[in-house]
Amino acid sequence: MKVLIAEDEFTTRMMVQVCLENWGYRVESVTNGVDALRVLQKSEAPHIAILDWEMPELNGVEVCRKVKEMNAETPPYVILLTGRDSKADIVKGFDAGADDYMTKPFNDNELRARVRVAERLVRTQSSLSETVAELRDALNQLEMLESGIALCGSCKKVYNIDDDQWHGFEDILEYGADPRFVRATCPACSKK
Questions:
Q1: What pTM, to 2 d.p., does this model score?
Q2: Structurally, how many domains does the chain consist of?
Q3: Tally: H helices and E strands in the chain
Q4: pLDDT, mean over the chain
Q5: Which of 38, 49, 99, 156 would give a disulfide with 4, using CB separation of 3.0 to 4.6 Å?
């Protein structure tokens, strides 16, 4: 699983990166909020983001807020890693959309545990998104089946609502022009 680290302080960034790589994660690291946001907007964005609060250009809270506003189907799991430890800051981080919050200096075992929780939640979210997509497809097919099939009584062509065209029956079977039709062999023909 891919993890983004956005941390402008070199030592902390390298410590987090080494830990994550030792645990088997693929890591991409940046030093400012603008680059972090750019990486998180990619189609193949990391699934987990560890953001420092105080970074140049955009701070971690601003990045978190902008990422959550993107309304991605499977948004990244965001962990704020910061020296800020007041209750007000913690609440502000969660209000911005952070999924977790850790204070510096961090403990390796705690970081591992939190990243593993993030990984489990990301995998669950991804699985749920796939299931929703499958259910949408099934519902669309059911709606198509319920809509009926237009068949010309003269030429025996079938109307396909998807491409707004009339197709010969053989075309439909051979090219799958209408998903409501599935090639099969009836019992009488299978005996021949």
A1: 0.70
A2: 2
A3: 7, 7
A4: 87
A5: 49
